Amino acid sequence: MKKQLSILFGITLMLAACTKQERPADNPEKDPTPMAATARACASMDILKDQISKDPARGQRLQSIENLTQRIAKDRSLGRLLPDGSVQIPVVVNVLYRTTTENISLAQIQSQIDVLEKDYNAANSEYGSVPALFAGVKANVGIHFTLKSVVRKSSTKTSWSASTENMKKSSLGGINPTTPDSVLNIWVVNYINYGGQEVLGYAQFPGGSASTDGVVIGYRYFGNTGTAVSPFNLGRTATHEVGHFLNLYHIWGDALCGSDLVSDTPQHNDANFGCPSYPHLSTCSGSPVEMTMNYMDYTDDACMYMFSAGQRTRMLATFASGGGRNGFAH
Questions:
Q1: Annotated catalytic residue 290
Q2: Which stretches within the chain are classed as H helix?
Q3: pTM of the full structure
């Protein structure tokens, strides 16, 4: 559906589009209970850019993972390297709370695990609503999620900075990750601050430091019950961020008519918000119908409900040797 950009150029273009100017420290909010977000914002690309700027080897590792991913995507004979419905991802949820409300219930945590299980296995109720135009590329990813444990810690912080990532450091008030080479760590916090604004969540792409590996999500955007707030109350923030954790980029490539390095997703001119009416035409070359219901767009939870076959290949490629998530495949 879309012309593929060169790997290195595509990644560089995406990173260049994610610059922020202000980098506040933890706990900058005067109001301890700010209004919940009404538009999706994700800091995953910003964090990746930060990591590469601080450590050039990070970019080299990412490029190596991308080279492997593209080889697998282009050579069907390499499909033997991909697992098929056999990957079981154990999840540790790290809850950092200031108030009783922020100390979310086990039921809310389990609801998020259940959403991930459904969304990644084409068992979500909306899967049958994928438009006919995309029916041929909608995909059952075949990755399973189970709750391993919950770690809770009280904190006086009213917010956490995505740029410092102190929520992942016990010495700075956070919680250290649990065996991140084979366990998905998710930190649930009261407020994620990046560049002076709230983001719903963010994830670390494959190939990064084990000490910061995992996903961070605000407590009002986690799961589909309890403190979850509309329009982000169906657990799709975690579905989106786990996609980044498994090497998916935003569907618009974080640039005007950019590339997500996936061949079967249409070219989007930009992020979509809310619930766009179908068909939503791109302003990019050829005016393709945008896949606004894809989990890697910025639409509301109720309006994102599919991955593509190309995205499935990208995610499963991370479990191959050298793919950055091989520890989960054993």
A1: no
A2: 7-16, 44-54, 56-74, 106-119, 236-245, 309-317
A3: 0.93
